[in-house]
Amino acid sequence: YSFFPGKPQWPKRNRDLSYAFVPLNNLTEEVKQVFARAFTRWADVTPLNFTRSESILRADIVIGFFAGDHGDGEPFDGPMGTLAHASSPPTGMFHLDGDEDWLISGEDMSRQILPVTSVVDLESVAVHEIGHLLGLGHSSVEDAIMYPAISGGHRKVELAKDDIEGIQHLYGDGGSNRRSETSGGAE
Amino acid sequence: TFYTNISSIPPLHLLNATRSAWETFEKLTGCHVGDKADGLSKLKQYFSRFGYIPAAVDNFTDDFDDVLQSAISTYQKNFNLKVTGKLDASTLGQIVKPRCGNPDMIDGTTSEMNAGKKFRTVAR
User: Fold this and answer.
1) What pLDDT shows up at residue B109?
2) Which residue did the predictor score with more confidence, B10 or B88?
3) Given the residues A30, A129, A158, A165, the one annotated as active site
4) Could you tell me if the ipTM is greater than 0.90?
């Protein structure tokens, strides 16, 4: 696992984080639930909590879908290619490429290769980018959520050991009621 | 577009993916240092985007030079590929995969993925 330079993280006084969606996207409740599930995966192994807010002005994290050049100096590149990007703490910027075809899978499947390679599993990308929002960099462990690439049709949403060790290095494990350090991730 | 299950996904030709930005790189298979090939400048932009080429280097030519060879070797280390410094099929197969837009390296030098780690081999 790796971190951003200087190992930025959310301050101890701010471990109950709020997130909001850019209203312009008019996302359905079904899409928003995908992000809620993705946040829960990180909350399960840390002392962090995530709550949805309706105000992007007050939220710690703002999530939006944008196409092409969207003003942050990192333009998206059309279908496939770069899928999304997110900033390190405490900026809370999470952008996804509006030119992608996104698949909303059922929550029961944690790892799967679908027979279609032309759509991208939304929850897999969301879990990865939330890792960046919390302070993790990329990992060379192919099984890890923080591995930089994912093929169309692949679904990988359960945190691997590498991800859990990295995030608990930053925030601890949140106490016995949370999933312990040893569990998690397909062995 | 959001598809809520596999059966709702239209045939491939109706989807966006057929126009992936990086498919063109596959024609560079087999290139190595000393070659000149149309499209190498775009591949250098790719490596610069993900931090494998220092920001100070910005005149991207179609020459397969040392800067590109070094970027490829570091990329191969980070993605657990055989480190050849060449554009072999497995390396290009990895390059064209969709990915996160965040960089892997900082300015071509600093990484905490494989390329930045000193592997400690412990005699057991």
Assistant:
1) 72
2) B88
3) A129
4) no
Residue of chain B nearest A103, judged by CA positions? B3
* Residue B109 touches partner A, C-beta closer than 8 Å: no
Q: Best mutation site among B4, B12, B45, B102 for testing chain A: the one with the most A CBs within 10 Å?
A: B102
Residues of A in contact with B104 (CB under 8 A): 138, 148
- Is 80 exceeded by the pLDDT of residue A88? yes
Question: Sorting pLDDT into bands at 50, 70 and 90, what band is A109?
Answer: low
Residues 48-87 of B with CB under 8 A from A: 50, 77-80
- Determine contact: B15 vs chain A, CB below 8 A: yes
**Is residue A129 annotated as a catalytic residue, yes or no?**
yes
Predicted local distance difference test score (pLDDT) of residue A179? 47
Query: Which pLDDT score is estimated for B119?
Result: 47
Which long-range contacts (C-beta less than 8 Å, at least 24 apart) are formed by A8-15? A8/A88, A8/A89, A8/A90, A8/A135, A9/A89, A9/A134, A9/A135, A9/A170, A9/A171, A10/A48, A10/A60, A10/A89, A10/A90, A10/A134, A10/A135, A10/A171, A11/A90, A14/A60, A14/A90, A15/A47, A15/A48, A15/A49, A15/A171
